[in-house]
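Weekly modeling sync, notes
Attendees: AB, CL, MP (scribe)

Item 1: holo prediction request
CL wants a bound-state model with benzoyl coenzyme A before deciding which constructs to order. AB pointed out that an apo prediction alone won't tell us much about the pocket. Agreed to run with the ligand included and paste results into these notes for async review.

Input as submitted:
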Amino acid sequence: MENQLTAEEITKREMEFDAKIAKGIVVEPKDWMPDRYRKQLLRMMSQHAHSEVVGMLPEGNWLTRAPSLMRKAVLLAKIQDEAGHGLYIYSAAETLGTDRAEMIDQLLSGHAKYSSIFNYPTLNWADMGAIGWLVDGAAIVNQTVLAKCSYGPYSRAMVRICKEENFHNKQGYQIMAYLMKGTKEQQEMAQDAMNRFWWPSLMMFGPHDTNSPNSGDLMKWKVKLQTNDDLRQRFIDRTVPQAEAIGLKIPDPDLKWNPQTRHYDFGEINWEEFNNVIKGNGPCNRLRMKQRRDAHENGAWVRSAALAYAEKHGK
Ligand code: BYC
C-alpha cells in the first residue's frame, strides 16, 4: 500500500495518522495506517494469540488429575476460554492483512514468540491456583489497559477477554485460599507454587522500559498506554495484599511497602533467566513446541473436514 505513495504523501499521511491517534480516535482495519504501526500490531497481537493457545498446555497437564469433578469442570471451562481468546485475537490480527495459517506457521517454525510464562512446568495441583491467580492476574492488569488501545479490533477483543480472565483469576485465588486453609501439606503445596510462579509472572510484563525496543512505537501510537514497568508495579501492588490475606509469603526478601511512593519496592528480576526463556531455552520450551506441532498435525483432518464442509455449503 505504502509503496504506491510518494515519500511526501507518506509523510503527510503519517502526520495525519499521528494527529488522529493524539485525539484518541480509534483506528479501524480499512483506515490508512503506517506500515510500521501495522507490523508492530501484528507482531504483538499474533504473539498474544499464540500465548493464549500455548497457555492451554500447562493447565491441560492437570485435567486428568484435578482433585474433584467440580475442579475438573472448572479447569476444563477455563482452558476452553483460553482457546476462545486465541481465536478472537487471531481474528482481530487477520484484519491487518495476514492470514491465520501464516501466523501459526511462524509459531510452529519457531519464528514467533509467545509468553515466557508458559515455558515453566506445572508440577503440583496448586500450580493451577497459581496460574489462575498470578498469570491470569498479570494478564488482566496488562489487558485492561489494552482494552483502551488505539486499534479497534484488538481493543474490542480485550473487553470480552478481560471479563473471562476475571473469572479465571478468582477461581485461581479460590484454589490457593482453599489450600491455605487445609493441611500442612496443602499449605506447603500452595507456597511451593507461589515460589515457582511469582518471578516468572513478573517477567510476563517484559523487560525494563529502558530495555524495551518496541515500547517507543507502541506508546507513541497508544497501543500500549502504560509501560512494562508501570504495569508490573501495578500488578505487585494489587497482588501482595491478596497473598498476605491468605498467609502466602512472597519469595522476595527485598519486597517492602514504601510509604513515600505508596508502592511496594521489590527485588531485581533474574533477566538472564528471562532472556534464556525467550530465546527458547526455558525448562519447557521444547516440550511446548512439540506439543503444539503434534496438536497441529493431529488436527489436520479437522481443518480439511471443515474446509470441505464450507466448500460444499458455499461458506
Ligand atoms: N514473553 O520491546 P518489548 C494469558 C519480547 S496469555 C515472551 O518490551 P513489547 C493466559 C518481546 O516480544 C496473555 N517474550 O516488547 C493464557 C520483544 O521481542 P520481539 C499473554 C517477551 O511487545 C492461558 C522483546 O521481548 N499476554 O493471559 O513492547 C492461561 C522486547 O520486549 C516477553 C500478552 O501477550 C514475555 N513475557 O512488550 C492463562 C499481552 N516480554 O517481538 C493466561 C500482549 C517481552 O521484538 N503483549 N518479550 O522479537 C504485550 O503486552 C507486550 O507484547 C509485552 C512485551 C508486554 C509482552
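Recorded for review: Residues 43-44, 47-48, 51-52, 55, 82, 113, 115-116, 131, 135-136, 139, 142, 203-207, 212-215, 218, 228, 278 surround benzoyl coenzyme A (CB under 6 Å).
Action items: CL to compare against the apo run; MP to circulate these notes.
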